[in-house]
Amino acid sequence: MVFPTTMSGVAAAAAACVLAATALAACAAPRQSAADGAASLRVMVKLTHASDDARAIAADAARVAGVPATYAAATSTTWHALFLHCAGARCDTAIARLRAADTLYQAVEIDGRKTPAS
Fold first, then answer.
1. Taking the CB of residue 38, how many other CB atoms lie within 10 A of it?
2. Coil, strand or helix at 95
3. Exposed (0-12), middle (13-18) or buried (19+): which is 94, by Cβ within 10 Å?
4. Which residue segments constitute the domains of the chain, with CATH numbers given?
5. Picking from 12-21, 48-57, 99-108, which range would have the lowest pLDDT averaged per residue?
C-alpha cells in the first residue's frame, strides 16, 4: 500500500487499518444472493454425463432444485461446485430434489469445507 509522503505515519496506519478491517468484514460475511437475500449453500455435484458448460449445469440445478443456483467451479468434467441460494428447510428440499434426479447426478454432497463465515 502506498501513501503520499505528506500523510503522517499515524494517519497512514489508521487508513491501512480501516482498509484491512473492511476487507476482513467482506470475507467473513455470509454469502448472500442479490436476488432474494437468501444465504448460499455450496454443494458438489457429480454429473452422470461429463460437461464443461457452466451455464447449463447451473440452469439444470436451479430447475431441478427449485431454488436459484449459481456455478462456482469445476474439479473435473463430472464434479462441479454450485451455490444454492436458499436457507433452512428450503435448502433441505432443494438438496433432496437434486439427489432424486439420478438421471442428471450420480452424487450430490454439501461442501463441508470450512469458510470464514462458518
1. 18
2. helix
3. buried
4. 1-30 (no CATH), 40-110 (3.30.70)
5. 12-21
Count the neighbouring beta carbons within 10 Å of the beta carbon of residue 30: 11
Q: Residue 114 pLDDT more than 60? A: no
Residue-level pLDDT at 27: 35
User: Integer distance in angstroms from the first to the last C-alpha of the chain?
Assistant: 30
Question: How many beta carbons lie within 10 A of that of residue 14, not counting itself?
Answer: 12
Taking the C-alpha atoms of residue 37 and residue 73, their distance in angstroms, rounded to an integer, is: 22
3-state SS, residue 81: strand
28, 116 in Cβ contact below 8 A? yes
Q: Which CA distances in Å does 97 have to 2, 60, 94, 100?
A: 51, 12, 5, 5
Helix (H, G, I), strand (E, B) or coil at 42: strand
Q: Are 104 and 67 in contact (CB under 8 A)?
A: no
